[in-house]
Specification:
126 residues, two-stranded antiparallel ribbon, nine-stranded antiparallel β-sheet, mainly beta
Length: 126
């Protein structure tokens, strides 16, 4: 069962059509889909069209759209086009998976976009 407990969220004006990007990483700086963990501000919770209000989850237990397989308890980063994948060396870690998820699926994880961690070595993400 997919659960959510968003403790901190924010709203902003979508500057592009985000209708098909629900549960992907978003950046508050320009209201668009994020391309990495460093620029990601949170997870898009709703499905706004251009110039509509968008809701972004910043901290808490949230659903996310996986762009690659993520193992249970695995650390998560943001890949291109706002998808979430397993973190590796040199990535910014934005969360941790609650359960395993396959590529293209919606998973649940614990996220903190306020201060993402930088994985300076591969031993940091195992």
């Amino acid at each position: 069962m997919a659960t959510e407990n968003i403790l901190i969220k924010s709203t902003f004006q979508a500057l592009e059509d985000l209708n098909t990007h629900q549960y992907q990483a978003i950046t508050l700086a320009d209201g668009k889909v994020a391309n990495n963990g460093a620029e990601a501000s949170g997870i898009l919770v709703n499905k706004p069209k251009s110039n509509e209000h968008a809701t972004c989850g910043i901290f808490g237990e949230m659903k996310y759209r996986a762009g690659g397989a993520v193992s249970a308890d695995g650390k998560i980063t943001v890949s291109t086009s706002g998808y979430f994948t397993a973190a590796g060396s040199g990535d910014f870690i934005v969360g941790k998976a609650k359960a395993a998820v396959t590529s293209g699926s919606v998973g649940v994880g614990y996220f903190d976009f306020i201060k993402p961690l930088y994985a300076f070595s591969s031993s940091f993400v195992t």
